[in-house]
Structures are given as structure tokens and as C-alpha cells.
Amino acid sequence: MELNLVQAIAVYALPVILAITLHEAAHGYVARHFGDFTAYLEGRVSLNPLRHIDPIGTVAVPLFLLAASKLLGGGILFGWAKPVPVNYANLRSPKRDMLWVAAAGPASNLAMALFWAGAVKVGLAMPESYFAMPLALMGAAGVFVNIIIMVLNLVPLPPLDGGRILVSLLPHRLAYAVSRIEPYGFLILIVLLFTGALGWVLWPAIGAVMVLIGGIFDLPVAVILRLAGVL
């Protein structure tokens, strides 16, 4: 379903904000569970999006990428919130627990993708009404956005969650070598994005997860993508 820019912003706004902010809240919640109360004491273990929104990463960048995708076609829609502060030294077992703290963000996106897929199913099953199609459209946007953010964050490049998971799993010497990439990780990610290499790596994984979630809810991937305004 072709959406104009204003319609796309209306459909994507809530899913994008929730996808980014709950991702960060999940990191803080799991860090608290394993002994680090840094985020909790700063009020970041919260479902209130206002505590997590970054004006650039949560608003400006997603809006820019959404507008670019409508004008130019294609592209990866992503963003970020204010990073939740985690002091890994406070964790009971820092190297081991780092894995669970890092994995919490992508896991929250997977849960939200499943929730939004359910919303698509409900919206399509409802009798035609004022709410049915908006619910299906927003649900499809939520599935699409959360899968992208989940897969992107699982790229094994510090400081992404996948990089921290990799550091947690590697032997100490290799883990230290990989962790030294972190100061340059965001720059590497930007280069990969603008050269198109990032999309080349991510789209097969995004497609595979979408097929899996679509299969769970008996929703063809083409239907989700059309409702999300991608096809």
C-alpha cells in the first residue's frame, strides 16, 4: 500500500518510538537484575519514552531516512535513543552477564515485532471500520521497524549489542582485541550504511526473520510489506 510522507509519519511514529526506547529500557532492566543499578538510579528503567528519546537519533534521523525512502525508494530505517548507562564492573559476573544485558535490547524488539504482527492479524480480521486499517498499517510498520532494529543491533560490531555479545562469548584475549574496535564502531557503521554494504548484509537476515514471524501468524511477508508501505 503506497503511503505518502505524512501518512507514513503518522503510521510509523508510535512503532519507531516504542521500538527504540523500549530497547534501551530493556538493557537497563536486565542490568539491574544482574546487579548494576546505574540506569535504575538515573530513572532509565522506565517505559516512559520521554526518558529515552534522543532528539537526533529518535526523531530527526528516522524522519530523514523515512523521507529519503519515500523519495528515493529503499533504504534501512533505523535510529537510536539515549544509551542506557551500564557499569559492567557492577555486574555480578561482568563478562558473562554482559551477554544478557546486550541481548535484552534485541529480545525486546523481537517481542514487539510479535506483538505488532498480532495487531496486523487483528486489524485484517476486523470488520471494515475506522480502526481496522490503521491498526493493520501501524502493526505492519511495527513488525518492519522492530525486525530492522533487532537485526541491525545483532551485527557483531562494538558498540552494537551483537558486538557486546561477541565480546562476552570470546576468550579473554580475543574479547579484548574485539572490544578495542568500539571507539570506531559507529563510524564503521555509517560507512557501511552509505556504501550500501550494510543493506547487502542485513536484508537477507531481515527477510528470514520476517518470514518466520509471518509464518507464526499466517501472514504472507508481501502483505506485511505492502501494509508497511515498502512494496
Q: Could you give a short description of this structure?
A:
With 231 residues, this protein is mainly α. 71% of the residues lie in helices and 0% in strands.
Report the sheet-strand fraction: under 5%
Class from helix and strand fractions? mainly alpha
Provide the succession of SSEs.
HHHHHHHHHH
Number of helices: 10
Distance between the termini: 7 Å
The total tally of domains equals 1
* Overall pLDDT score: 89
Number of extended strands: 0
Shape: globular
Biggest sheet details: none
Helix content: over 70%
Query: Which regions contain 5 or more consecutive residues with pLDDT less than 50?
Result: none
CA radius of gyration is 18 Å
What is the secondary structure topology, with strand pairs?
Elements: H1 5-33, H2 38-41, H3 55-72, H4 94-125, H5 132-153, H6 161-169, H7 172-179, H8 182-195, H9 197-216, H10 221-227
